[in-house]
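Q: Could you write out the predicted structure for this multi-component system? I'm mainly interested in how the pieces pack against one another.
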Amino acid sequence: MMYTFKFQDQTYKIKLEEEGRQTEVEIAGTSGTDGQCTFAEKGIPLEFQKIDESFYSIIVDGRSIGAGILKKGKKVEVFVGGDLYEFESISEREREISKGVISGVQEIKSPMPSRVVKILKTNDDGVKEGEGVIVIEAMKMESELKSPIEGRVKEVKVKEGDAVESGTVLVLISSE
Amino acid sequence: MMFNKILIANRGEIAVRIIRAARDLGVKTVAVYSDIDRRSLHVTMADEAYNIGPPAPGESYLVIEKIIDVIKRSGAEAVHPGYGFLSENHTFAEMCEKEGIIFIGPSSEAIRLMGDKVTARRIAQEANVPIAPGSEGAASDVEAGVIAKRVGYPVMIKASAGGGGKGMRLVRKEEDFKSSLRMARSEARSAFGDDSVYIEKFIERPRHVEIQVIGDSYGRILHLFERECSIQRRHQKVIEEAPSPAIGDETRRKMGEVAVRIAKAVSYRGAGTVEYILDQNGNFYFLEMNTRVQVEHPVTEMITGFDIVKWMIRIAAGEKLSFSQDDLSIKGHAIECRVYAEDPEKNFLPSPGKLEYLRTPSGPGVRDDSSIYNGYEVTTFYDPMLSKLIVWGGTRQEAIKRMATALCEYIVLGVKTNIGFLRRIMENEEFIRGEIDTGFIERHPELLPPSLGEIEPALIAAALAMRNSTKEVETSKQAPASNWKLLSRKLAVSRNPLI
């Protein structure tokens, strides 16, 4: 069975094959474009034990890995070696769609539940990439959210003092 | 006479730490908790617990009347304020003094004097302690701009009522001054209810080194050597260690003497910390004095064998410090990492949520001061620190290796943490050589994202998770309604080595 994951804008493919009790693993990492493999290893024997509801012991060709795993729908969180890897599992069809052109409008979203402290740009203001657009506050810390692209403010969707949830779209920036 | 019962006016790991110290002394403990903290560990660990209202600190942990009321109702003789919240509130200490409640800490007068950073600078000056050039007092917008220009950029804008890095801004260029001043004032206003600020010359590549002091009620004040806290993000400490790799015995002795001098100037009682900035030439300048137990106190405990929190309680109960400066020495090296629910890749934004899974490190020389557990909910109401991981080693190198191992043993699922980031710092050559200053994290953005070195095992684990969840769905589709049958099927499944 082939599994495809997205991690930090890169797509990784991994194949698990089961022959009786033996599982084999094959990994191909592609950086953006298909076919450009950063590493690919074939047919490595793998054995694993589920220690408890989230902790796995995996032995890949003698190498022992202890990993915490949490699956939430299409998102898989893996905690290994002190790091959390957040993968998004994608099907072949979704991969095709994601290859389409990126829309000319970028969203600035609230990264967490917070309060809008100050709006630095209004509709139709020109913005440079990395320029501050809006200031939010969470846990008494203020942070300035910056425009990911150069363009023009298309719409400010919140006002100062608003309490916003994580993921709320605050400002739309169009690339013109 | 040791107390019979004390109240802990705090929450989180420090409340747990104080409860443990009190237990060592055979003292009963009273916890207070907000509505959202009903399931917090300090509540379950204390002998008594009282609700003090809504989650927002301003409606519970910061309400002096509520705390005093619980102290009276519970019959506690003393109160330990921990750090943050009311710990440096001189009005609270004064209220306790008036009500005949013993405040485990310094006098309200010492808190008041040192709490105003401008007054503290003046006291230091009078005690012949070197301070960094800057404004004499709180400055208006116009004055601040003038002073900044006079002492020369870069400058620091700091909240007069400040602490914990809040209301603090580094300004490198004159054109950024106005906007930074606005942000600093606004942060100071919401954090301390006071937006006055002062200006200080910024010292290039400064190291943050502080001295732990402790004084009893009979005028004896000792120091417990230094801690280096140069690894900071957003002006907040993330990694602390003792001793500092940057100073020798001579500087250590001088810093200690100066710290004791400042503490004596305010007749200091209890545990306190004198903070300095150390420049690249080994000169140090007084920064401020924190009149409470410090978050990073465990590293000092690990190298001296001195239990700071327990001694705070003993001193408040009237005990004398039974030893002198010469009885104290440094043994080995200790490092503390503050484990936060935050995202290093998003400018360390807090990452609230439920801890879906938790495994904590252990082993020789490893101490995990925390108040979290499986299923614990990190809320936006309080500081997102999950735990303080502390290690001791015979040498700094051993401590670093031990910390790296301990961080690798940690597993937290459900929220983002800085664990991987901390581990990468432990493996950084500059850090290992002790070449650190407060700009370390900003200079090393490459340490922020997860290392791709572990992506392969992570991918394998992710694929196994997908595979197993598909299998579980297949199983449940055929599953009959009876729980007994379901249970036996699960048992059968778990015997299969592949599942």
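A: Regarding packing and overall arrangement: The two ends of chain B are 60 Å apart (CA to CA).
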